[in-house]
Amino acid sequence: MSLTQLARAQVQALTPYQSARRIGGQGHIWLNANEAADSGDFRLDCSRLNRYPECQPPAVINGYAGYAGVAPEQVLVSRGGDEGIELLIRTFCEPGRDSIIICTPTYGMYAISAETNGVGIIDVPLSASRQPDFDGIIGRLGEAKLVFLCSPNNPTGDLVEQSGLIRLLEAARGRALVVVDEAYIEFCPAHSQAGLLADYPELVLIRTLSKAFGLAGIRCGFTLANPEVVQLLLKVIAPYPIPEPVAQIAAQALSEDGLTRMRERVAEINRLKATLAGQLAGNAQVKEVFAPNGNYLLVRFTPGSAVFDRMSRAGIILRDFSSKPGLADCIRITIGQEAEMDAVLAVLQQEQ
Fold first, then answer.
1. Burial class (CB in 10 A: 0-12, 13-18, 19+), 96
2. How many C-beta neighbours within 10 Å does residue 55 have?
3. How far are the Cα atoms of 1, 119, 155, 276 from residue 281, in angstroms, in the given order?
4. I need a labelling partner for 303 at 20 to 30 A (CA). Which of 6, 99, 125, 234 fits?
């Protein structure tokens, strides 16, 4: 028996999540991973590095609770939002028996985390208006423990309508958890669903410091949920999930000064995004500019493959989504620095 054959059957058959770093590319302008263009400066105290870190650093928990407007006991900090997704599946789904519901096209890690844990996947695709098919989801709640929604949705940028979400939460009472991934919510904070947490114990939110806070490199995310859910997740999480340097940087990012820097970064990204969207809308090679609610724009070109290749030759690395359902010819552009946005437009203008 080979080493590969020793692995679980699900792992042998698995195609790993194709992150921006795994896909790679050759270029000098990287606009494929929805990263911020800067991170800011932080201080590190190395005097505690000889000690194991706290599982849930109070400064980080309290800082994020204050920022999000929830109680500290409703917050769990983890190694990125991805670990929060993984923990929910491991905590609430029995391998080989339970399933999750996803709504494609959407973030790929929901399915990958389910597959690696032997959990089934029920796909209820987005509607023609790119909203979750709430009737379809409700009709399959008896088959799933978790429903994953992304708002703003990655990659389309669409927001989940609150009226439909409330209808789903009412139907999910005592049956399933509804997880809303708000990794990009800082770019449209008025549309957060955090206000529903008090009334709907089945609601869970996923958050991160990777996007608006410019800290993708420290891998720090949050799960906001009913305290009972948080306590269950704490039974499953690793004993030392947050390294001491990560905790120190996260606490500083959540300070008053850190939040001010984040909001300034968001304002600049939203300004550049609006400008880019307007210029793209007038370009003959652009068929559609999708919802502008994250730190990226999904754009349908004609044809997308030719535009993607021209950008690559110019050293501009974007993310191709043309293989995803309903996204033929679609390319996602991360909003970077102004000069980087100008470079994208310059390549498009050369071929007009």
1. exposed
2. 14
3. 57, 42, 18, 9
4. 125
Residuewise pLDDT in 10s, the chain (352 residues): 887 887 877 777 777 766 665 565 678 999 999 999 999 999 999 999 999 999 999 999 999 999 999 999 999 999 999 999 999 999 999 999 999 999 999 999 999 999 999 999 999 999 999 999 999 999 999 999 999 999 999 999 999 999 999 999 999 999 999 999 999 999 999 999 999 999 999 999 999 999 999 999 999 999 999 999 999 999 999 999 999 999 999 999 999 999 999 999 999 999 999 999 999 999 999 999 999 999 999 999 999 999 999 999 999 999 999 999 999 999 999 999 999 999 999 999 885 5
For the entire predicted model, the pTM comes to 0.94
211 closest CA partner among 30, 7, 37, 27: 37
- Cβ contacts of 270 within 8 Å, gap of 6 or more: 187
Rounded to whole angstroms, how far apart are CA atoms 338 and 342? 6
Return the residue matching tokens 């420290």: 218
Note whether 164 and 132 are within 8 A (CB).
yes
**For residue 77, what are the CA distances in angstroms to 47, 66, 282?**
23, 14, 43
Cβ burial of 88 (10 Å; 0-12, 13-18, 19+) is: buried
